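Hello,

I think I submitted the flavin-adenine dinucleotide job twice by accident. Can you confirm which output corresponds to this input? Input:
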Amino acid sequence: MCVSRISHILAKAWNVVSLCRYAHVPVWVSSRWKHTNSQQYTAVIFDMGGVLIPSLATLTAEWELKNNLQPGWIWKTILSGESHVAWDRCMLGELTFEEFVLVISKEKQTSNIIKPYLEAMTRQMDYQIPAMREAIQCIRAEGLKTAVLTNNFWFKHQSFLPVEKVDFDVVIESCREGIRKPNPEIYKRCLERLKVQPTESIYLDDFGQNLKPAAQLGMITIKVGDITTAIQKLESLLRFPLHGYVHGTQTVHKHMDIPTDRLKEYLQTTLGLSSAEPLTLRQFSHGQSNPTYHIRSGDRQLVLRKKPPGKLLQSAHAVEREYSILGTSFYLMEYCQGRIFKDPTLPGLSAHQRTEIYSAMNHVLCRIHQVDVHAAGLEDYGKHGNYIERQVHTWTKQYRASETHNIPTMEQIIKWLPENLPTHEKTTIVHGDFRLDNLVFHPDKPEVLAILDWELSTLGDPISDVALSCLAHYLPPDFPILKGLNNCDLTELGIPSDLEYLTMYCDKMGINPVKNWNFYMAFSFFRVTAILQGVYKRSLQGQASSTKAETAGKLVESTAELSWMFAIREGFRKFKSIPTRNPNPPVRKYSTWNRQRSSATNFLSTLSLNNHSKHLISVPKGHLIISSEGLSPRVQELYHQLTMFMDKHIYPLERELTDHQRDENRWTPNPKMEKLKTEAKAKGLWNLFLPLKTDPEIKYGAGLTNLEYAHLCEVMGRSLHAPEAFNCSAPDTGNMEILLKYGTEAQKEQWLLPLLEGKIRSCFAMTEPQVASSDATNIEASIVEEGDSYILNGHKWWTSGAMDPRCKLCVFMGKTNPQAHRHRQQSMILVSMDTPGIKVVRPLSVYGMEDPPGGHGELLFENVRVSKENILLGPGQGFEIAQGRLGPGRIHHCMRLIGYADRALQLMKERVKTRVAFGRPLAEQGTIMADIANSRIEIEQARLLVLKAAQLMDTVSDKEAASEISMIKLVAPNMALHVIDRAIQAFGAAGLSGDYPLAQFFGWARALRLADGPDEVHRAVIAKLELKR
Ligand SMILES: Cc1cc2nc3c(=O)[nH]c(=O)nc-3n(C[C@H](O)[C@H](O)[C@H](O)COP(=O)(O)OP(=O)(O)OC[C@H]3O[C@@H](n4cnc5c(N)ncnc54)[C@H](O)[C@@H]3O)c2cc1C
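Support: Only one job matched these inputs. Its output is below.
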């Protein structure tokens, strides 16, 4: 039997997946017709009654006979007197048919006859003559236009049109137009709407009077009496058959003709077809590469698929067959009647039906991939393993063989694919061209009956088939060969997205999600590109089996672009999957000279290090360490521990900690935070902030320089919750430093130690609502001596941390001597928060954020009595302490702000790589790329300045670093605001929500343009110092 081995094998596979074939209806078709390109007609126009639907004249004659009426009596009666006018008005749409019947009923004595007649006629004419319908389908299959031109009426709220409207390009009805045949105007309108010349059209009517004006305009006319005769006349004019229509077929293309006699003889011998039955051939319009024919002989219907004629590319058309009956190899299949959906949007179906169709498609693909290759005897159906690699090689060769011009994108893909091949491949039967329009669905049910186009099937990687099924998702709806779904609202249509389709597949197959999906999509579009290039080249050589081939070939570049788009996405995915913390990072020992070497060495000599601390620390010798890799091994270890702690404990708990700050218990400490503190302390990640210079014997802190701490503090700044977990949060850090620098041993004992242990918390009360507190000399609160006590009175606000029930200490700033020099009037005094006379008025909020449990309190101090011993440093020293406090303590904020900004940028990058808008990831949008670049530049600039300020504080003095400290206090929050704002913008509305830390980062960064002293004050300091130089 001359059915090719491949189809035989596939039939076996097909049986394994046990899909049934569907019945068909035999229709006789003459074999005398050949497709001709010399068509002079481009449109056929049909009258309705007597042409498309039964003839009114015939039905009337029958009715008259049945009702014993004189022949012609009915219409003679209707067209007499007033009824004539009414009938005319009915045709012109001025009266409905129902109104016309009313007129007749009133008018005529005979209404008891006319009325039932009219009702019977509308009933009997309500169907389309099948032979004419088939003729129209044949005409349209050849690409000609069709129209209905009818004198018609309104009936039951619409026009009386019992024909399939999809069969016509144009419908002209007298009742809509307000003119009727034989008025030549109505014929002209029809031609105009068809956009054809009269001589290019054929007009069919059963009424000679209506044919005349058409003929006068130059249209070819056919008078329809007997329908069969009319169709034959039309056939002879059009020169192609008007019966034997098979959905999706047309007459055989001129250059695709095959020798019917030899084929007939062959089929008689091999399949035992009757010699008496004529053999008819039609060609499927579907399929670019291998022409496919519908064969009918008697009641047997077959499909023949063959290689195109002419010289072919090696192995591009694997329709392997040794027979040369048709000049090229071929194979035969049974014809399966059903629905083929060429438009992936599935017009005419409901959303639910669409979901079912795509689900059925997915299901049948799974069944193909589940075929037991061994049980089906298909072990040798293809090579095992490395399918994708071999495919890339094959299609690259194909592409090269048909290359007509250089496409740079394709060159990139050809280089990229072999470097990114999947590491694990399953081997199953693969279809090789699995797409919706290669499936024949049951006429009514969401069930696949047959799968077409198997010539690329082999053994291979099944995911390649899944990706091929999703090509349409990325092609535009007007893509000439395969209509696409790009930019369609899939949810509304009920069509799964490509990723949903993939998930459906993985679930059904019981396999893990496919991580490198983008690779498969890139590969699929690469393959399509290679195929289109072949089609294009053949079209240039005149071998393409479709007229669309040339257009398709020109689309090569657009599919190459799509392939590259997925390659880029895959690149991003891989990049993202690289662990963020490389355990062995490449060491970049960046350092730069800073100020004069002598300053640095001076600092070293001023340090009074004991042996223990000398051993522990390695003080920077004037080098600015600009990345963590440059830190000493001990600090690097701390840095490593800290980042691990952040990853393991802080980030995963962030959401919970934030939620606690919003619930009703927010003013009580969160036990989860207390647990974090215990763990951090146990790991030595505790009190890292205390500068070595203040604590040279490393009695209280971790012995880090400001520069070293800057690197660690930045990491803590990446989460708003982190600093507290490491006992490094404001305002405690500043207060601890004050106590360490200026406190007596007793004060240290009472307050510093519990603060260092994290047992209590503290606040700092300087700012007052009634005065401009950016100028500390304005402070009005009073500290009045009374015996061995001081009496405190004042109204304070923005006292951070005061709301916390653990807050036991307040560092209070007030005036002890308003008469003294303006910088000697103020003093600072330590006040226990449980001293009588302290009232918490309310918590303040920043953009609605209350920052519990510490908050920012408004407090009243009314006759608060405090022991004289609690004064810090001495009366009148408050301004000096304030200056000292605002130094290191406040540069910590700047270090953390670098962390805010860097985290915001990291979140932004992650978001824009995965979020797609207008057909490409946001990361590929130019403005987003510019935002990323600007953010990175600004972060790096600000970081260098923070590090420089920190290093100057270490190596020279806070006073000498004053300019840099002011600079960074100005630069850091402003930089962070820009970076965070860009990240928020890239996130869309989500960026403003509480779901991400961005909105909070933004709020606190903004607050820090005031909390650390207003920008203007810092500018003033910088300018003054600059002017002094
Ligand atoms: C979140 C947060 C936490 C805070 N925590 C504390 C705390 O714990 N303890 C505490 O005591 N205070 C705290 N503050 C208060 C903060 O220190 C003050 O708000 C800040 O010092 C400014 O004082 P002010 O609000 O009185 O503004 P004002 O002094 O009234 O200044 C208002 C504006 O005047 C302008 N201005 C001021 N000086 C100049 C100048 N030289 N040149 C040009 N323009 C100028 C600036 O635009 C400035 O923003 C906190 C503030 C915030 C927002």
